[in-house]
Amino acid sequence: MAKFRSSNSSRPVPKLDSRIAAMTTIMILLFGLVSVRLYYLQVLHHKENVELADRNRIRIRRVPAPRGLVFDRNHRPLVDTKPSFDAVIVPEDSDKNLSQTIERLERYTGADHIADKISDAEEAGRPPYEPVTVAERLGWREVVALEAHQLDLPGVSLEITPARHYLYGQLAAHLLGYVGEVTKNDLIEKPDYHNGDEIGKFGLERVDEGFLRGNAGGQEIEVDSVGRRLRVLKEIPDTPGQSIVMTIDLNLQEAAEQAMAGKNGAFVALDPNNGDVLAMVSHPAFDPDIFGGGVKASAWKELMTDPNHPLTNRVIQGIYPPGSTFKIVDSIAGLQEGTLNTQTAYNCPGGLWFGGREYHCWRKQGHGTVELHDAIVRSCDVYFYEVGEKLGVDRIAKWANKMGLGIKSGIDLDRESPGTIPSSAWKQKRFHERWYPAETLSVAIGQGYVATTPLQMAEVAAVVANGGTRYRPQFVKAVEALDGSIAKSYPPKVESRIAIDPAALETVKDAMADVVNGTGGTAHKAHLDDVIVCGKTGTAQVVGSKAPTGEDEADDKTPDQFKDHAWFIAFAPKDHPTIAAACIIEHGGHGGSASAPVIHDVFQRYFQLYPPAPKPEIARVIDNDSQ
Amino acid sequence: MADRRLILHFDWTLFMLVLALAGVGLVSVISASYAGSHRTWDPLVVRQLIWIAAGTGALLVAVFIDYRAFQSYAYPFYVGVLGLLIAVMVAGHATGGSRRWINLGIFHLEPSELAKLAVVLVMVRYLREEPPKGGWGLRHMIIPFVLLGIPAALVLKQPDLGTGLILVLITATLICVGGLNWRTMLVLGMAAMLAAPLSWHYLKPYQRQRLVSFINPQADPLGSGYHIIQSEIAIGAGGPFGKGFLKGTQARLNFLPEQSTDFIFAVFAEEFGLAGALVLLTLYASVIARGAWIARHARDRFGALLAVGLTAIVFWQVAINIGMATGMLPVVGITLPLVSYGGSSLIAMMAAMGILININTRRYLF
To answer: Taking the complete model, does pTM exceed 0.90, yes or no?
Structure first.
């Protein structure tokens, strides 16, 4: 028990009571010392400290780097930055007069919702004394007004920042995208972004944010109690973003935009030899500039509620039944599987009885007995019902997938839709129901469950054009460092290759050439004088539309919103093609009349810009002789 | 029967002091969080209210268990806390470069708060026997050093210099009050002073930075000296009577990342001035005086030393926290008891106050 054995000390056992008393005394004395220190700080040095608190405001200000430039394939600028005069406010510096300051600021600048902007910034976790940008891209008059009334506007100052500028307005808006202020979520996810920073929100601006952004610089600034900057204490220079050279051609894009003017729909042109996107249009478009300047609530709402969905990039997000353009897929599939050869003939009396009901051909009087070539040229539905029936849905799906349908193309843009290519497995999984053979007939003419994007259909055209190689569509050629050297290049990427029998391919190409150039073809409007254009029209039935699927040029009286979507896919020249494209005009009616002219215009421009290699006429003669 | 006497002799004085301090804490947490959000009922405030309620519950529980029972639980509790400290090292939740928390889903437990209670209990359990004539010598101190050394090493490893320091100080207080002989006290004091410069080698770079900044804050006014300078300015700008509730501008400068925890005193002193700060100090002094009174009137030596230990926790934390905020001491992470935001520290501290009330209440019972 006796843990602490007693030593032979003569001194007494320490008394707990007295030691506790000593402890208490020491503790209270030390508190006294703390009180003296408090008196020193709060009474003797009070004034000094108040002054320090007021004046001691060293702000660390970030200086955003100018974003990188964007060029077209020939190095013509598409997007750059220009100085923007912005009004910023440090609410703390305006203190009690904040509402009055806001009111004046709104009067001088014409900006609205300044109070909302400030409270939004607070919501997003604005650190105290960090300025809030409340009015951007001020004109000269507003700048002068602000300068003149500086003293009435405590806490307000002007800032010059690099602002995004889209040189051609709405041109390629969906591809270029837009920038905007970082959101609360961005700030949580990306620690290197700060309140008020600009960030790519859409399109190229978003996917290549990492190259375009650059590195912000910083300034350590001493400011006085009303927020006026006294001096810059320290400065770290910014590094501008890298430049992007795109694959699109400005002139071609302009031609495409012009051809699509006033229409809703999509157009995309690819280089079939490497997958480069030469032009991409989605209409209606939007003005990317309005997002940079702190988008006004009314403008944003208008864009969001527009029934035509201007913010949707129809080229990759719009899914439409491909209609008769799908017959190219049927043809390749049938020829590859051997269920079809170039001489296969079917009789078209204007319809086909199958499973107790009649499936119509768009031409009520029928096409008579036709072979593959004519079936494509005249777009006979009955012929392809037969082709589809022989193939079965799963083999159609297999070849459609190989040509890039029902899967994402892999283009580096957000929210690309894969579309739908039905198969028996797909239906079992989706509807827990077996596949009915009759449904194959609808699939064969690109209706029913089939849904594709314009980009996918352009890939189909490109695959036929180059003889079976599917490249990943790419819209960036290179990233250029500040010194002009290539920081990153984008070599062509092969997604898949199919070996198409050359004779079979030639038959399809011949037929597609006659769609544009031959008698009975459905797309004479795409004809060019000096280049052989190959194409295929299509009509996508609009749900609710009573009009028969057809290529008939005779106009019907269907109201616009029930009119079918008009498709046209094409490539040119027929030998050694250098451009492939797809176009859809919503509610355009017929592919031949609505979409073919768009491709005509763009191809014409393309061959003006890049003339085809002169036809080796003599060589051809010799060739013929030797056979 | 016992229950009635418990209620009859309940220490209302100490209880009210504890609630008053928790009230000051709540007001300060409102001020500190208002700076960022401009909302009076910031989630931080709501959580602090919940901690206060939970802490009051813990206090009452601590009152109703006979404190003498703690003698038999001291070692198991100590071992359990050591286990938690090891768990923190293995699976702890890291914030700001140190691992101090265990994520329990709804609650982040900070075992180093429990470590203070554990060290007090185990130390008092060991020292409850009367010292020999002339007091304890160095050879009696071997076991207490070991009992202190293990948790202190674990806490320093996190790294949590502040709690490590508190563990050393409360142990020292208990040994000195419990009956260390004067000569040994002198020798150990000298040894500590000599060892202080050596400890420089064991400090992390940021801890060294803080020491340098303490000696010369202006050496790096935007870096490590920033906290000290801005905290002093906040307190000084408060003046004799303060700027008023929610009117502190320094607090809004966001100059202290820890303004609801380690630097909450600066927030309070800016808004309530010297008057408020003295009221706060008086509240703490009253708790300490009451704790000392309870120690002297306790029925047994275990109770007396336990009261001393618990009082010492409060004292050292207050002294170091305010000393740091006023620039008298270098910056170490220590909470202001009952006032700083935080569940673990608040509940542990209120439980400790419950034990004090317990000791006071039971002097009539046996």
So the answer is: no
